[in-house]
Amino acid sequence: MLFPFLPHLYSLALIRATLTLALAQHQLHIHAKPIIIDTDIYSDVDDLGALAIANVLSNFGVAELKGVVVSTGSEYGALTVDAVNTYYDNVHVKIGAIRPLTQETFVDRWGWTLGEYASKVAHHFPRALRNATETPNPVTLYREILADAALNSLTIISIGFLTNLADLLESGMDEISPATGADLISYKVAELVVMGGNYPSGWEYNFAGVDPKVAHRVISNWPKNVPITYSGYELGSQIWTGQHLAQEAPADSPVLAAYQWYGNRCNTTLKSYDPVTVLYGFLGVDGWAELGLPPMLEYANADGYNSVDAVDGINTWIEDASVRNQHWLRLRPDITVSDVEEVLNRLLVQSPHAAESRQGEIIEDLLRSQLRI
Q: Which of 79, 160, 204, 349 could cross-link to 248 by cystine, CB 3.0-4.6 Å?
């Protein structure tokens, strides 16, 4: 632990100061847990914000981002992922893209207020990937990373549709591994973290919006020995972030640009379904001391399991004392929404070179944080 945390709730100023110094002083773990992010990056920009947070935490050694797989067919998804990874000096992170690839771009046909950002990020920011066709398909990348992983070591964070996971579950043995997809998951995955559902029951887009049958297949057939943690609509919808991007993010940040392109008339304050899910995926319920902070999330249930209807995608939590490997998240009672928002906001505005910052820059950031109450 970098800093002993207080027995009572941190003030926002102390959270800003502690997180800034903790990130600056953090040393890379020799055995940081490996992570794959499965995203539908294309429409809602919080996927990009979540990916940025994953890159920052990976750079500081909290965990290691091994790969990103994309579940939406636009070629701009993979190219945007690569642009964000490149910005944070993580061009080595592998990317998988679902097929067939299209040149489709997002149009907000619900409210006609939100803007398209993926093609703009892909075309206006440096990237190592020349074309999305250079990527493997998601199942291939999943199987390659899982085959190389240690037993029960890898965390999968799903912040989009479950298409890729359904295909992985149903994949057979091949030249990559003699194990089936279900066996690879059972042997190699320590936890699946899913942004999906509404708890204890309700409708949510990742499960119900496009293909409820896919969500039903994954949730119903996931290996029983691998824990699943759900981050629901009711959690992310109350957490708003991005407020400080224009004032504090580097001018060349693709996060700043994407949020401004997406937000209604450059409004960058948006709900944070995916960022809070990634934060849990990296820290869990007990890893907040890695950032010098008190734990902020907890499991809302002791037992039971999630059931997703294959027709309408509505999920229902089933009480069952015999099932103890599934949980859904909520804020701890001594934590406010503002506390979590502040942590996410500090991560969103981090420079890609923050881990190399000089001490003078760290102190300057600390003082600036303390002054903004």
A: 349
Cite the beta strand spans of 148-291 per DSSP E: 154-159, 189-195, 201-202, 228-231, 240-241, 270-271
> Residue 160 has what DSSP assignment?
S
Provide the residue type at 224 as one letter.
K
Residue 208 to residue 157: CA distance in whole angstroms: 18
- Residue pair 236/191 in contact (Cβ under 8 Å)? The answer is no
3-class SS of residue 254: helix
Distances (CA, A) of 27 to 63, 85, 154, 178, 250: 11, 20, 21, 37, 23
pLDDT, one tens digit per residue, over 173-197 is: 999 999 999 999 999 999 999 999 9
In angstroms and rounded to an integer, the radius of gyration of the C-alpha atoms of the chain is 19
Contact, 241 vs 345, CB < 8 A?
Answer: yes
Choose among 242, 276, 247, 281: nearest CA to 117.
242
Residue-wise pLDDT for 129-156, tens only, equals 999 999 999 999 999 999 999 999 999 9
CB 79 within 8 A of CB 109: no
* Global pTM value: 0.91
